[in-house]
Fold each of these.
Amino acid sequence: MGFNPIAGILKRRLLIVFLAVALLVAGVLSFRELPLQAYPGVAPLSVQAITQWPGRSTTEVEQQITIPIENALAGVPDVQSFRSVSLFGLSVVTLKFKEGTDSFKARQNFSQYLASANLPTGVQSSLSPDSDATGEIMRFRLEGDGVDLTTLKSYQDYDISKGLKHVQGVADVSSFGGKVKEYHIVPSPAKLQSYGITLSQLITAIGNANNNTGGNLLRDGEQQFVVRGVGLLQTVDDIRNVVVNTNNGVPVRVRDIAEVEVGNVQRLGQVQYNDQPDVVEGIVLLKRDANATEVLAKVREKVAELNNGVLPKSIQVKPFYDRQVLLDITMGTVEHTLVVGISLVLAVLFVFLGNFRAAAVVAAVIPLALCVSFISMEHFHVPANLISLGAIDFGVIVDAAVIVMENIMRHLEEGAEKLEDAIIKATNEVQRAMIFSTGIIIVAYSPLFFIGGVEGIIFKPMAFTMGFALMASIVLSLTFVPATTSFVFGKTLHPHSPAFIAAILRWYKPLLRKLIARPMAVFATAITALLLTLYSATFLGTEFLPTLEENNLWLRITLPNTVDLDYSASVANDLRTYFTKQPEIKQVSVQIGRPDDGTDSTGVFNQEYGLYFAPPDQWEAGMTKGKLVERLSKHLEKIPGIEYNFSQYIQDNVDEALSGVKGENSVKLFGNDLNMLEAKANEIQAQLKKVTGLVDVGIFRELGQPTLNVSIDRQAAARFNINVSDVQNLVQYAIGGAPVTQILEGEKSFGLAVRLNQQARASYDAIRELLIDTPDGQHIPLSMIAKVEMTDGPFFIYREEGKRYIAIKFGVRGRDLGGAVDEAQHVVGSNVKLPEGYTVKWDGQFNEMKVAQGKLMVIVPLTILVIFLLLYSTFGNFKDALMVVLNVPFAAIGGLLALHIANETLSISAGIGFLSLFGIAIQDGVILISYVNRLSQSENVREATVDGAALRLRPVIMTAMLAGLGLLPAALSHSIGSEAQRPLALVIVGGMVTTTILTLLVLPVVFTWAHRHRRPPPRDSDVNPTAAMLP
């Protein structure tokens, strides 16, 4: 006899056990190095050019900033799409890159192309932080006993942010709220006239008085000195004493013509928290691909360091949102699911094998196979997220080991062989069938490696984990299981099959014979059940992915675009007070407007509320999140002139990153004329409000910004010998308060602005009457050389792929996403007529769902075709291959019924569950037909089918129960972190019920009927009836 690999394994069993222990240690170490994510960064890689141009109108920003940047970035490699938004004083241009693009390379190319943009003098763009839509891992506020907002803001910008940015893994720290310190020179128009000083002279004098100079080096003997001319302004008195001009030989100082005071930059945002109407907030951003748990631990250490030594005792950093809380809750959900799943698997193994040692050997394959996955994931830099890892089916992982162990136990139950002989013979019998059938499951998972987008980011780690684990399970089943079995079993062990298996067989074999005798009735029943189930699937509805619960609400409220910060803050005060009184809400944060760095392109009319939940035991009896949203919505409906939508903290950021719109879904109307866009958007909004299930419908309005235009009459200005720059200085500095220079205070820098007092610029008429000096000493009103008029301009200008658009956002509640949007598309298409050159695009979650469905519609049939070809090449005939593949649609019956019972929709998560289910169904069919084919060489087809199915009864039921019960906890869970797993698990749990019935009752009937003309074997044929190798 030749060398038998299994015999060699048994001779080296000590080495096998040692290697298994080493694998376990290596796997644990690799798992600790994997970056675990509660919610993966599902948004594609994007980079933004953020350009602030204070005081400039939306139209100017678009024409002079946004369009030049878009043109400069047009050739950046690997770009999938680009979009932009222009608004008052701010331009944000976003490039979304193709999946798989390296972040460092993308940012490098982006910077190189951006440098070629032709921007106005003094204007510079900055890149967005190297983070993603899920990168906001901590929010904190500053508490200062008796400390004013200006001082708190200064500490935030120059001490706290700098300290936290030094933490490895932190991409940036964004500041929001507070008041930025600024020095103000407030000239008196009357005193300027009295001394004959123009505004331009004052601005020039201030700039010239705030400089240091260098005098190079001076030698003195053998030494040399650095020569400095120190002239920087440092105090208010320094500013007051700046000489602007002379009058009859007497110097005219700033104090003679103006007041100098310490004030604040005009605010574009404000933050409120619980009972505090005005606070300073910081937002810590995680660097892309960094480990959130590790970074958060370091951030907390840094916060403690700041609180205990760096900051004054009166100032403290107080975190109020920490991603680790969500990580811990989600990890707890996953751990519970895994522990219960593994326990159920172990129980099934013990019950069906009738031996605890055999069950333990098989169960040990689970951690060992997962260790191989963790090592491989670390090596190939595959991130791990708790959403997909919680959906791993341990029952499928141990299928290969079950096949081997069950055959070993059957040989031992027959009692005719020694332990080692039984192990060798049983393993050799099933190894080819086991390898092939497990390989089929791996092929069934292969579509997950080719899908992209959000669904790919979430579920690819699961595919990698399952793929590596299944390959490892094959090796472990042929090495670890035989070796360990020879250790733990006594040499005289003769186990007995559990009594209930014999009872089932006594019932099963007569039933199967009756069904084989009535094939047409069986076919009709199966086909009818399939057709009815497929028809019922049309009522399930479709959605992209289940909403991932975050234990909070993120409420966005939009006021009329013309409101100022004070009015917006007063509305937020009232709502914040109402929200804090709700027992279900533990804390409330409010963001009004935008942060200082321009990373959120909005205005003071925009309010965002973080509503963080109290523990469940503090909620009113019977209250749910959905009911809470309804209660809050009823209150919001009482406030006139607002639009609102509910989301969640991370979800809101992801939705905006995917589509560029602050909402779950949107209709984007493209065209050039803003007035036409707004008119047609109103029509679309009216139609959307008619569709049942569509909520939070609102337009991101672009027009209506009141604008005071100062249009210079060049001919009139020339008659008075007035330069255009003098008028522009009046607008930019005296009215707008633009900084003239910077005052340095150690490492801190604050602006110094020249601005007329509030009374001189308080109204349209006051600005018209502002006096401007002529070279010959006259003082004429601005209206004599410029046309001052009120007009309406755009608030925002949105662009995508170089085209203007307006967005109408909406959400879907109480109805499936696919059905609601399909109806909405029909209603809008039938009732809204668009002018030539205007187009509509439906974006957001619906678009992501359609893209994902399109990919699966191509990849899944190709996968089934590949599996069929593999089966055909293995069985060598069309009939058997087709019979196994027919398991696929029939296996779907249970999955669809489970979704119906649980009131779930057909989502991408459920679709991935069907892929797993199809692989398992094919595995059972392969091994059953292999048995029957082998037995039919010594028996007629009917008896071979009955005997083969009886032999496969225990392993088929075992694998079905293992696959189903392994995911039963995930299917029943409604805890935080279970949302994406539940549809997948439901499909597999339900599908395994019908797959088992199909394999044990329908497939044998089909096989017998398909081979009814096969000739019976010769009477003297002698074939081992227990062999199960593939031909």
Amino acid sequence: MSTKSLRLDLAPSSSRRRRLRTCCTELLEIRTPLASDLMIESSLLEAEPAVADYLLVDVYPGSDPSDIFSFISLGYAELNGVAYFAGIDDSNFYSLWQTDGTTAGTEQVVGFPAFADIRSLQTFGNLLYFEGSLNGSSYELYATDGTAQGTVQLTSFQNFFDLVSFDPVAVGNTVYFTSGDGFSSTEIWKTDGTAQGTMLVKDLTTVETSPLIAELTPSGNLLYFQLYDQQLSSVQLWRTDGTDEGTFRIGTGLADPSYLTDFGGALYFSASDAMHGEELWMTDGTEMGTTLAFELVPGVNGADYNGLRNIDGTLYFSNTTGDIWKSDGTLGGTVAITAENFGIGATEPLLVFQGDIYFSLYNGDLFELWKATDVNSSPELVTGLSPLLFTFQDLPYAVYGDALFFTGYDVDHGLELWKTDGTAEGTVRITDLTPMEGDSFPFGLTFLGDNLLFIAKDTTSGFEPRVLNIDAAPIAMIQLPKTTNSGLSIELSALGSYDFKDAVADLTFEWDLDGDGQYDDAAGFNPTVLLADQTFISSWDVSVKVTDLDANSSFATMTFSADEVNLTLDDAALTVSDGDLAVNGGKYFDAFGRTIVFTPSLGDVIDNGDGTWTWNYVPDADDIGTTAVTIDFDNGVQVSQLSFDLTVLYADPVIETDPQSPEFALKGELATKFGTYTVGSADILSITATLGDITDNGDGTWSWSYQTSINEDDYQSVDITITDVNGNSMTLYESLFTVYPVQVHLTINDAAATTNATGVVTTLPDDLGAINEWDPFTVNVWIERNPTTSSLLQTIDYTLGYNDAWFQLDSSASGAGFSQMTVNDVGGQIEVSASNFADLNGGNGDFLLIGSFRFIPNPNGGVPNTTQGAYADPVDLGFSIIDLKQTTLLYTDIPGVQSSSPTTQVEVIPYDIDDDGAIGLVDLTYLIGKIGDPVATTPASYPFDFDRDGFVSLIDLVYLIRNIGATQGNGVPIQFPTISSSLEAEPLAIQSTSSSLLEGEALPLSLPVSEEHNIDAAFGNLNLFQECWESPSDDEEEVDIEAEFALPDFPWQPDFDSEWAIEASSIVECVIDKAISLLEDLEEEHPQLGRAADWLKHHFGNF
């Protein structure tokens, strides 16, 4: 893990950067003039600068030029006007060297200890600090005043194989640094430059598990740093004043604090919280003083800051679109400089020079240096940056007055030292230390007076200290002229001329066109002269004198032909593959502006109309080998010719994975990938894979598959190789990631579930046992977390299916686990998207709440109360998860599987017979029509037998009457019947012969033993049993009414008045009286039911 920044960003850099749009700007031309660029018959440029190696001293003579950084370590540090650096001697030990910028003043510090390695040489106060290793494996921190006697070892950690720098920084007179292996834990230390004053600031392992520390950032009188808790996988913001008690965490509610930057004595940084996406925050070092600086993108999406830097008192950063912004720390003072939509993470601000902001851009292939002038200006390309060594975070540069020196890159010369004055003509490459052999890797750019010190390699000495004196005379250059004004005039050019210190605009250009040695024929960088004023012979000498502000002058002379076409060629040799476009080009100049006819021996030549020409050709299999390409340039007077070698190779086969190919597979399922391939003229020999089966589909596409097991490894490499008949091949290095599907759970609860602060529980809450159709309830949706599929959560999208005929959604809540949830109820399905999760840790077997949904009964529906032939049993609620997709920083659209369903069941409201959501007169009327019915012989009567005793009785009537007035929404509690042991198979019915209860409907009567609990439940404190039933005495014989008078096939009529019949009649009369009394109470409580109550009392009175 880098100690420069701890940031939860696991995705590969190139995956977050988009290729640069080609339509955005007019590019700043890269100027790299060389003598070899000109093919003038008479001579080369006379003032072409000699190739210089700028060598200061050869510290290790004979060192291997191919070794990188083997003999010079990490640049220079200045102390008291002297620059120090670490160099290796011929005994292979590092020691301290010092220089005043001259070869004579460069020497090894006498008596300095010999080290196996030295790194991170920095100046704080009046001391140099460096990290040294005596044994080559463990490093300690040292301080020195530049002498052997003044060198002190400050630590004795003996951390073997310590690969992480101490990253020392200073706050006042105190130097803070970190120590540890960079993997298990690091701690923060401080020193005053003495061994006695070097001590641990705070033992952070007592408060966090295996902490890692990074981004040590001074601000005011405090030091701020990131602390990464490896157990929780979280980045925290801490501060210290150098004391144990003054070292603590701040911004406890913030996630991923990054880009710690001092600005105006306060610390600014990017972070997110539950309410905001990644935005800019500020702190004074206290919890109360940690506040949102401003919100650039309101809501939870955030601005996605990158490269926050304080440059000359202004904050610069890039945002979600990759555009460059600047800010004074307030929203009103924050403006966009560019509007190009470069792509997230593609850019980062670097420095301000001449009022322009210079920034890096990754275009998908390499890094480039760009600049932008002002708000909404069009950015300009300056040059390339090496993708091999330096990233945009580590651009080596140094500024001296109007000159910016930096390490730049172009494809012809590799990584070299460049200089710009901020203009196109003033942007030039200075060195070419490794001609035709790649990069010289200049770094450690440091000014010591008028000397620019740097370290670079050449083909002879390898990496050595080098120096460039900026007081040297300017470099004079002449370019091929152009014919203008329809051939009546000529435009001269001193493009490529520069001074090490002064801007091109401050240089004086004087021209000698007649060869008299006097520079009085023209003036300026691009003068135009009339042909009529010139005297031509077969050749013409043009000279320029370039003078800087210190009156230093240099000269250059070009000789060109007046009769022939003067030509330059970009490349003397080209190598391409068959089927690829071969391109070459150059410049041409005819002194009299004559029409030129281009005739190539192969391919096509285009006159670009600006003094340049372009040749192109697409070779095929017949061109395999090397061919000399010649081009004739005929101006009507003479024919000029140039040639170059074109070498055509068989094209290597190319195999690629389709971007739509699956990035992972579910364990136990078939893993697949697919893609395309291209070949040149050679046929394919084979396409193979190191795992699984691969098929050549014969149409330029391939398909791969592999049957995974349920215990498949999370990651395996898959190498797919295509080989042609010539033995040329390409290997595609693929990765097979396998994951388990996301386990989804539903629980039915009274309310939204209670979780911890990050929305997690270790055990799912128990479901409600049973509810009725009018009860509100909450559906809680959970995922079971595991380290692979739940780590670095980004979004979870799913659909919650429900029965919209029974229920309707009342409200929803995200809970503590995340702050952004969109809900779209489309009727029967609720589409949900959850994001901005509080805990990015993967978890392991715990449960994350991803939504709570409150349901109420559907006022226009409900569970149907129409069961016939059986009593209505409770039913499942019918909730399900449909099509859950989970996306993390690593995986997109991991599918979910519902692994458990709620056990809660719902039962109907028995008294709401018409299913209208209210218990009223209509329900009462329906019931009255069924009184006396045995359910065994009248299946349609089941819904009316509330107490399930086998008959629709007055007791059922009383239950309904007691619940009249209750509705779905008024909250009146429902009084449910006590369920009897079913008597539906016993068809006893007592009927009246002369007058029926309600138009001939039967009145059932059961034995008191089986009805006692129902009567009590229905009539409550009316004490019907005690008041209306007289139990038989011990000496009286109890008659089994059901056994004696079970006459199921015809209405029963008594043949005699037995004592039990008289007693039963009295009980019935008592019951009717009580029922009438209940109706009177009901009428008093509900006057609107008066007519209905009178009607019922009338019919009861006739019984």
Amino acid sequence: MIWVKRISLAILALLLFVVIAVAVILYTPAGLKVASWGAQKALPALSIGTTNGSLLSGFQIDDVRYQDSSMDLAVKQLNLTLDERCLLTPEICISDLGVKGVKFSMPKLPPATEPQQPSKPVTEISLPIPIKVDKVTLDNIDLDILANKVSWQHFATAATVIGSHVTLKPTDWQNIKLALAPAKDTVKSKNTSPTDVKAKSNATAITLPDVVLPMSFDIERFTVKNFELEGKTPQKVSLLELIASGKGSEINVEKLQINAPQANLNAKAQVTLAGDYPLTLDADAKIAMKPVNGHRLTLKAHGSLQKLLIDAQLKGKLDAVIKGQLSPLKADFPFDVAVSSKHLQWPIDKPAEFTVDNTVIDAKGSLKGFTFKAKSSIDGTPMPAVKLALNGKGDLNQVDLSSLKINTLGGVISGNAQANWKKLVTWDGELAFANIQPGLQWPAAKGNVSGKFVTSGGLTKQGGWFVKLPQLSVDGTIMKQALTLVGQLDASDINGKGDLLQVNTPGLTLKHGPNGMMVKGQLNKTWDMIAKIDAPDLSKSLKGLHGAVNGDVKLSGSMATPDIKLDLQGNDLGWQQLASLASFDLKGNVTPLPDMKADISLTAAKGKYGTTTLDDLKVLFNGTEQKHRLTVNAKGDPVGANLLIDGSFNKQTGWRGTLAKGDISTPVGNWVLNHPTLIRYDLKTAMATVGAHCWQQGKAGICLTQDLTAGASGQAQLAVRKFNFNLLKPFLPPELKVNGELGANVDAKWSPKTAPYLKANITMPGGGLSQQMSSDEHSLKLGWDKVTINAEMQDNALNANWLVAIKNNGDLSGQAKITNLQGDKQINANVKLDHFTLGFLEPIIKDYHKFDGQVDTNLTVTGPILHPAVNGLLQVTKLEATGRKVPLDIKNADIKLAFNGYNANLIGNIYTPDGQLLLRGTGDWQDMAAWKTKLNINGKELKVSVPPMVSLKVSPDLTIEASPTAAEITGKIGIPWGRITVNQLPKSAVKVSKDQVILKDNLQPVKEKSAVPFDITTNIFVHIGDDVKLSAFGLKAGLLGDLNIRQAGKGPMIYGEVNIAKGSYYRALGQELLIRKGQILFNGPAEQPYLSIEAIRDPDNVEDDVIAGVRVTGPADKPEVNIFSDPAMPQQNALSYILTGKNIDSEGSGDSNGAMTTALIGMGLAQSGQLVGDVGEAVGVKDLSLSTSGAGDDSQVTISGYIAPGLQVKYGVGIFNQVDEFTLRYQLMRNLYVEAVSGLDQAVDLLYQFEFN
């Protein structure tokens, strides 16, 4: 019994060892390493890197590689975790299965083993135990299988399998790229034999097998994001989402969503894969692909594949509905389809050029025989509107269009046609049209046309074709001229090679009014055809065209050596008012085969196109392919030419010739070719070559210095030598003169694969220009010692530099580089101007008798060429501007404009005889659409003169701000002193009527343009000081007050008041009236002030202590004038006090009447001041005037004026006596005069004038 115990202990120990060994292998890392070692020993192609964990509790394996002759698999990381809770239950539970970094390559299939015997299809799969996978991730996968490449970044899913049912949990698949292997060339199949066609025509109905899923399934959600199919035209899908289930033969798609750049699709479907395959489908697509983006397409289908009903709709700018019934499983494919559309157009995404409306198409039958009908309305540009209706029938071998009807242009086109391709393609057709009126679409072609033509044709067994038109007839009227087209035509090419071409017509005649053309004859082995043109009055056939053309073209000879004879003439030709030609004559003989030979002459006379005229033209061409000559002699204005070209043509190599002579006349003289020049064109390379040569005029020349080659690639070197600017004299105005000469060299190269190369340099030695401003003034002159400009374009960049050395002045120099010429152009440039004086501009600044200054600048420009940054300084110094008629004299000025990237600062100091004017400003163009500037102007008591009317001292303190849409002016202006003298109103004071309307040539009003492109806003305060004097039309007054000038959107508005100082007087009614009260009130537009003025006669010159005067009140355009007195009295008495200082009934009425007479004369003379002044100017007397002076019996009428500067002459005639008085006054200096008077008494006086307040 001992051995039994020992055996039992041994068995127990062995079992214990096995259990422990299994536990160690399954639950310890050592077991995982042992399994890894065993796998590598069993599979030499397998290698495993590091391992962690255990087989049952979860493990991770890194750097797994399997490589043999047919495949290569590398896995960066593999992890597996089992659910230990399921180990004691009959199921498999995987908590986590993850694979990262897979690269798999299988360039070819492994060697094939013995073929497997086909087995019966599996109808059901059922697992004995459930499988549950909580998480599966496949990340960074890259597969290459037989050159089909697929990769993705992330795949995550979960699933359960219970018996024969699979549930796929929510699944995400992201960033997939698929590249299919290049398609291999397939062997072209031979032509289908008649037996094959017969077999196809005898096809039987399709019987579909019943499909039973071996396992039922539920897909809770399957999502694909960012899928791309790579290739020449990549296809992308941003989202695909599927929810589906299936059991037995039934499949249910609850949701299918696809989002792609072309469209977004949503669909659901149900299908049973048994019997007739019953199904339902509901799909909705929103199209995003241009040009049909914005459209919506829906599709509904139900029934079965034995009888399927479909309903498809397109909605949007285009609309269409397709409804029908199909039987795909039947051999003859029965169908019944209806298509309707209310509107179709082309182009789709732009204004329509063609539209198709109210379309209905019905087709019914099967492949053995079907019928169809359609109708539609078609319109477009430039075609006329068309209504179409047709009916027909057909089968797989033929189609018969039994009825065609088109309503258009007020008439009807009808016809029928048949085509058959059972053996060879043949067709027959007949088309008739009646009462077609082209004038409804093209007004210049009014008329009515009817006609008919019959045609037939087909293809031949030899690969050729034939066409017959046994009847062609058109008749009617166009442009009130009879139109006929009658004839027959047959044409064929039996073998399609051209050597058996035949054309035959017993006569084809087109006649329109007096104009016509006839073609008659045949072309076969022997050519005998003639085309005659007889058009004595082309204006009858085409409006705007006039003249006559007649002649003929004859074709004769054999097909191998045909002969073409041309004889055409034209007279008095012209097109509208644009072009005309008095006559042309074209004659010639051409033999095109086997080697071309020609003798052609063209003469024309007295042609004109716009401002270009042709006096005479002769063109001669004669010779053969191997040797020919072209002579061109043309006389005209502005260009004429005499050219002689010899050449030869080789069908293998191309054309080669010589420009033997050349003489071109232009407005800048005659240019003559210096020597015969080679010209070539190579057929193989498609390259033209022109030899080096020059066109010369005297010493000047325009030359190709090297042979020019031109084609897809090429090069050219051009030079301009000693081009004298005197040649440009015909193009310059007579007052502008330019002297000097120009030289230039240009080198250009180009090719398809590289950026073009260009190098140019321009040089101008000493020269200049002068502009005569007017006959009595000096001319503007600007000269230069040297000008050089160099530019080079290479590698998509342009480099340039320049130097302009101004004669007796500064230099303008700079350099620039522009990169990325074919893209976003960038510039890096420097511009420099040194010691450039402005004195040469003095002749064009007429109001200044002295003008000078100096400009210096050094600027750097960098950045985008349309929005560069600018850095540097622009400085104007020593600026001096003085003159007799200018408002402000400038003794010196220093203005600096500093640029700093996208902003600038201005500092200006302007010195005048009365003080300094300060300018301070800034600018910013960082955003070109919102640039902004600001300028401050400040000064104190600067004298501003506008001779001869205004002299002011102003103290400005203004700020001006501007942007692309608005400008704002704010600040204040002080006027402490001023002298304003108005002798007559300037022309600008008379405004153009607001009712004025200017019309264009077509009598449409011209739209007024805004003076400035932005809105102006102002808010300026003006203070008028107490030393501002006004003298105007008899008014001598002091002004003071405050005004506010405001503008916001509309015109300027003025608010405030101007007071007329006491002691001012106004000469009216022949008297000098004192202004007792004077106010001008502003409360709106400048031209509508309110007046409140009282002017009285000097109380010292009025009897009875009476105050009498004139009161003016109301708006300036309609003032109210009243005569008043204190004490109150009748108007005539008050007027008498104003005019005479006495009552109308007082004693001494004679004196009163004399005063009244004097007053009335004064009033009359006051109205004639303008006329008298104009007469004085005409005879050379300045400020000539008529007035009254004195009082009582000493009253006089005087005339005075200046006959020389400072010398005034005055002559007076007594009104009530015959005493004359002559006065001569001379101004010695300011306010000091010497005066001599001769009359009843003689006197010489020394006068000094002063004033005080």
